[in-house]
Amino acid sequence: MVSGNLFHCRKHSWPSEEYISRATLQLLDFDSAAPPRQAWRRRLNSHANILKEFSVTFMEALKMMRLGVRLWSYVREEASHGRKAPIDPFTRESCKPSASQGVPLGGMGSGSISRGFRGEFRHMQIIPGLCEASPIMANQFSIFISRDGGNKKYSSVLAPGQHEGLGKFGDQGISSWSWSLSGQHSTYHALFPRAWTVYDGEPDPELKISCRQISPFIPHNYQDSSLPTAVFVYTLVNTGKERAKVSLAFTWANSIGGTSHQSGGHVNEPFIGEDGVSGVLLHHKQLCRTAKGNPPVTFAIAACETQNVNVTVLPCFGLTEQSHVTAKHMWDKMAQDGCFEHGNFNASSSMPSSPGETHCAAVSASAWVEPHGKCTIAFALAWSSPKVKFLKGNSYNRRYTKFYGTSERSALHLVHDALMNYKRWEEEIEKWQNPILRDDRLPEWYKFTLFNELYFLVAGGTVWIDGHSPATDEQPSLSHNGHKSRMVDNSKIRVTAATVNIREGVVIEHERVNGFENTNGNGINYDDESTSVNGDESTENTDDHNPVHLNNLIDPKLDDDEDVGRFLYLEGVEYIMWCTYDVHFYASFALLALFPKIELSIQRDFAKAVLSEDRRKVKFLAEGNCGIRKVKGAVPHDLGTHDPWHEMNAYNIHDTSRWKDLNPKFVLQVYRDFAATGDMSFAVDVWPAVCAAMEYMEQFDRDDDGLIENDGFPDQTYDAWTVHGISAYCGCLWLAALEAAAAMAHRLGDKPHADKFKSKFLKAKSVFEEKLWNGSYFNYDSGSSSNSRSIQADQLAGQWYVASSGLPSLFDDFKIKSVLQKIFDFNVMKVRGGRMGAVNGMHPNGKVDESCMQSREIWTGVTYGVAATMILAEMEEQAFTTAEGIFSAGWSEDGFGYWFQTPEGWTVDGHYRSLIYMRPLAIWSMQWALSLPKAILEAPKINMMDRMYMPVRANDTGIVRKVVSPDFSSHDVHEKMLVAANQGTQRRFFNP
């Protein structure tokens, strides 16, 4: 869709020769050691400035005072129970956020460790929802070099020594190490999931070093992408006339971040594995207070011995002078000999660490590099935490245990396989990335920002479990700290079977849709009565340890390859809620494009949730009133915090059952996913929830004009921005949902619902345009407030989705382009000349809408979504200029330093709110718009709304209609629908 010469004359954003000499690039141009020219770059001596956090104005503080008091009380109450509130603006991290982030390590869902561009390991998230931001400075790579004759010797930590606590005179800890690297001639290059650090003559002027960091994030690979491991490949090029002995040391502290290393009881153990892989296991017993009874973690650090590379280990050293072997002893041994004693492999496990003592380990790999010769040394890191335990809920086996088992010692096998397979991983990564990287029509900044924004799927806090049931060996009686576990009260949770009003003899049935069975074991019938579990209407579940399952969504008949387990990811590291749905609406393009089975799994979770009810009382903090936690028919805001899938809606600022955007967003995402994948089984499974979600919204159409109205409070994803009457954002989403629901009903042969939704759409569309269209854009809302005529950047969110799904446009083309041009001219270009992104609200007089904190913010993910809408409307130049503002402000060298921690948004002066946030993944909606899936491109081009009255023929592609007699079994229906679907259309997954 991008024109061939649109960016032909643009200068590349990151010319390689400005960072590394051409001669060095040529020397490293083998075995993937040279970084690609399309990578994001930073010099190691760059200053990591402290980031500026968002603050509210005096008037905003007055408006939110009551909310603030209630939120403060709620945060304190949660803390008294040993829990962290999902939203806590009052607690500040001890480590101030800085512009120091880099590509994180590992695959998805097994805990994450980030690594800054200067080499520090930080932001450990091994425990779900707990992020330890401070770097662990003992975790380092160091180098020791000696030349033939012994005249030249160099040693240094391979990170600039610009950190607090270093340089203490007489220290026996890491201050005794040589932190002599200036970083002036060293550069970092990032192209997620890989990163390169090139040391161009540092610390030895005659040695070129490239460290390549590789993690197994591989689209459509649902096994390797779950592995908690990473590889570091060092390529050494000796440009001198003398042979050089080069030794590299990888040191690691037995810690999961924070002060966990001081809790005591931790043990280190050397090992010799297969294929020359040797190293140290670090068993972390999770006795620290922050662990809250979580299962233990085992780290493994290792290197691969080859004919030219010798590997030795130091199983245990400490950071104080009381340690039997100190950090200084370790350093001095490496500086003198370049290796440790070979007998260390015969040592038994170390004595458990004492409280206050830190156990560290080191792996050394050394090799001789001939004059003008080259050498490769590979290290690996893995962490094994086989079970994930939620504070108020069950324990589950992580996804990788499906392939490696639940032993803590699987870390040993993980590092081995990583060192054996990393070249294959790189081949698959390059095969995925190269078509985009080599597309000369695309600007350079877009290419690396597109891939690097995916960092969030690793570092944003993700949990990927194997299967759908809790870990079988979990004991219900006692937690790890010996106290009785706090179990959820299920007495007020009702799980309701799907209810669909089927008329005119058209019935769609599916045995165990969403995993439920009735009391006699038969499949559920969709009639006008619902079946309940718990409560007064049926037998109460008496198993306190296993609450009523709001899960088990994948059909049990699917084979093993189809079952990808269950996936959670946080809204952000500051907003600790799993799979926040109004934000997933923006981010989900990344999962659908790269891991479509995960995306369908998440949608099945929410389809199940729509049909459930949880009557436990919750206090909503904005108004101070109470309501039930989960209302039947309403899409939940999130899947919970401390007991996901079972205790949903951790968000309690507003009553989200009254929000107007969640249900339409569910319908739109379901249809888009169905249209892109052609998965008829998925469509059949979620259709009852789609109907229920649409029916639920009818209560908000109070004047029967087909259009929903907002209720005079922030009842949408902009939860501080009040809306009155009909709104551009929610109204447009509702129109799009009506069109998508009608199209889906048509595909499934449900003519009554197709006719119903089409009729509502035609009625609502005319009202929407009559009430909001002002000649150049849609007003913010139909009210009479001071901002009712504001230009909202996100006003065409519904149009974005229908265009992304191959549906007809909601409005005439000239109106769509008029709106987008207005947003571009005002919300984008009138804010710092377009170098910031699109501000959420702008008055028609060209002044930023400051009616609330969110109207004056620039939301990164919304900006990407607006840019995608522009691409779909054939406004490519405006699209890339709009999105480039996010790059300029967040990722460029002159920006605010938000790389690999892209926040929810920032103000015009660059103050951020909520770092490491889900919504910026919406940049993948731009790539989606540029490369629509084949299934969407090949859809019939006639108007879907006109097709509603066309007769359904047996050979219509992708359309299934089944009239069912009462004695026809639901299993037969399902099987016949699948056969018909497979005959008409093949399942397709998008691969950009």
UniProtKB/TrEMBL annotation:
Residues 565-926 form the Glycosyl-hydrolase family 116 catalytic region domain. InterPro entries: 6-hairpin_glycosidase_sf, 6hp_glycosidase-like_sf, B_Glucosidase_GBA2-typ, GH116_catalytic, GH116_N, Non-lysos_glucosylceramidase. Residues 102-425 form the Glycosyl-hydrolase family 116 N-terminal domain. One of its GO terms (cellular component) is membrane. It comes from the Eukaryota. One of its GO terms (molecular function) is glucosylceramidase activity. Residues 85-105, 519-548 are annotated as: Disordered. One of its GO terms (biological process) is carbohydrate metabolic process. It holds the Pfam family Glyco_hydr_116N. This is Glucosylceramidase. It comes from Macleaya cordata (Five-seeded plume-poppy). The lineage of its organism: Eukaryota, Viridiplantae, Streptophyta, Embryophyta, Tracheophyta.
